[in-house]
Amino acid sequence: MAALFGLVAAIGAGAAAQAAEPAHGGTIQYGHEQEGPCLLGGWIQQWYLQRQYADNLVSRDADGRIVPWLATSWTISGDRRTYTFQLRPGVAFTDGTKLDAQAVVDNIAIWFDADPARRNNAATFYFKDRFVSARATAPLTLQLDLNAPYEPLLTVLSHATFGILSPTALARGVAANCEQPIGSGPFIVDKWNRGQNVQFRRNPAYNSAPANARHQGPAYAERLVWKFLKDPTLRYGSLLSGESNVIYDVPAVAWEEANKRFHVIRHLTGGTPLRLQLNTEFPPFDDIRVRRAFAHAADRRRAVEVSFLGAAPFEGNAALSQSAPDYAKDLADAYPYDPALAGRLLDEAGWTARDADGIRLKDGRKLTVRIAYGAGYNITSDGAQALQIIQEQAREVGFEVVLRPTTQADWLGGKNRGPKEFEIQPAYWTATSAEVLKIVWRPDDGITRNPYNISRFQDPRLWTLITEADATADEARRRQLYQDAQRLLVDSAAVVGFSVLPVSIASQHRLRDVWISSAVGEPVFHDAWFVK
């Protein structure tokens, strides 16, 4: 009878919690992973922060549709070269500056600034080659002109990195905006305690939430403390102890427990998956047979399953994330584990001899592959374990795989990232969909190298497919072109599948309505509230 009573009480408590109304007040203690060098910038960890204090022109909902935000409506000219946005009236930045069309024009000018410390590199790579001008044709009317159609434009503008900032604040200079940027969003940056946290307070005048927000008006929570807890065990422990109400990136070892004890949501990030980028510029991966051999040499699926314990699934299509509408599903199982086939490919490529340790040789040179990665930066400890499994399996086929973990500081300083310092770099690029292909695979222009084309794969057929897709209004045709680009990349083994890149959030049950944006996977706290 006692057990039955307990069950009834639990059901009743659950029903009461479900019926609870959003309440105002409280401080959200959020345990995050990495800290950027500024509170705004071109790195995803900075985008996550920017989403809390800045608004965008448009938002992207869970179904991939572009919905209103600061722009209440927009029209596109018949030649697809002119976008006209009508802006929401009555919006102000938190320093009192009016948010009007000229303020947006001022932001766009800085996106393309000649000074690399000021400009937005994402804008440069996404659409500077298409951009002609931005001008205010009326106080709340923005006109953006292109020199050719660029169909991903609205999707790109939904990325958190394109949050609109106060032009008055921007005029203070790079250092001030690095420390305390000012937007029109639901939270205001109070103080950045470097190495510890960023403290936000609620914007009481907030009136510009996107159409896909769960409520309009100011945030429910009074404050948000964004703590930097890089160690995953420490971060999860802070949730267990109650020092954090919500944390980012549940570690694999705690994944099963967290799903039982807390409210866990997982979002499969758009853009590219976490994949192995093979350096095609130099031997041995300048030979497609060797690249394909490596892809078949290890049971990558099993390595991911063992290491991530379900927290992050395997992904065989290394070209585009499976959450993207243009994802080619037929590539999900590319290059299955087949050591016999890997051996034959290496034989064909001339790697027939072996040394005393079983490593293949060609012209007296070992078949050595160096995997360089940012340890705890772009590869977690779970990912590093998966690489160790791949290292051992590839050795059976005759690859000498050398792992080169690199600290975040050294990685950002360029260590182990020079053109001849690695054969493989595991990495990802976060976006929403196939617009990411333009960033990653843009060919060199004859003067500068594309720093994001780590594989150095520059087949002109690929760029033709991408640029044609970006300019194609017909959705079915555009999807076909993007999928053809993915097939070319996977068939060429310029990138090899590794893992889906998930964003996970675990929160106490008393904290409701934290959600993850489908733009670039950033956590959103504007709608979050505590059950009283």
From TrEMBL:
Cited InterPro entries: Peptide/Ni-bd, SBP_5, SBP_5_dom
Keywords: Signal, Transport
Pfam hit, one: SBP_bac_5
Solute-binding protein family domain segment(s): 66-432
Membrane-spanning ranges: none
CDD domains reported for this sequence: PBP2_NikA_DppA_OppA_like_15
GO cellular component: ATP-binding cassette (ABC) transporter complex; outer membrane-bounded periplasmic space
Gene3D superfamilies xrefs: Dipeptide-binding Protein, Domain 3 (3.10.105.10), Periplasmic binding protein-like II (3.40.190.10)
Protein name per Swiss-Prot or TrEMBL: ABC transporter substrate-binding protein
Natural source organism: Rhodovastum atsumiense
